Amino acid sequence: MTESKCTVLVVDDEEAVRQVASDILGYLGYSVETSPSGQEAVNRLLQGARPDLVLLDLIMPGMDGVETFRKLREIQPDLPVLITTGYAEPGAVQSLADEGVAGFVNKPFAIESLAKRLEQILG
Fold first, then answer.
1. How would you write the pLDDT of the chain (123 residues) with one tens digit per residue?
2. 67 lies in a domain?
3. What is the CATH number of the domain that holds 112?
4. How far is CA 27 from CA 6, 81, 101, in A?
């Protein structure tokens, strides 16, 4: 277990998903913050929050993952964003890949694959 070396902001409209992601990330040694919407995540960064990585759901009501990703990047251009989705939309996935998203993780999360992706991105 690593001591809390990095903070991950989990953005997902489903409480259960935020809780599972928090539990897994906490188990892996990360500090975790959660946000139930893209707009709240954007507001957090505007208010000075500086997570090391954002775990961002693609399909959300209101501000979706694509729009949230773009706004987060406007505020903090070097912020790594890992997209999570239960059902990828090929167009959106390709668009985000072209825009520099750090990667994609399928839901439900597998601890091993999530740990590996975070290690690759955060070192």
1. 444 589 999 999 999 999 999 999 999 999 999 999 999 999 999 999 999 999 999 999 999 999 999 999 999 999 999 999 877 667 777 888 899 999 988 888 889 999 999 999 998
2. yes
3. 3.40.50.2300
4. 13, 20, 25
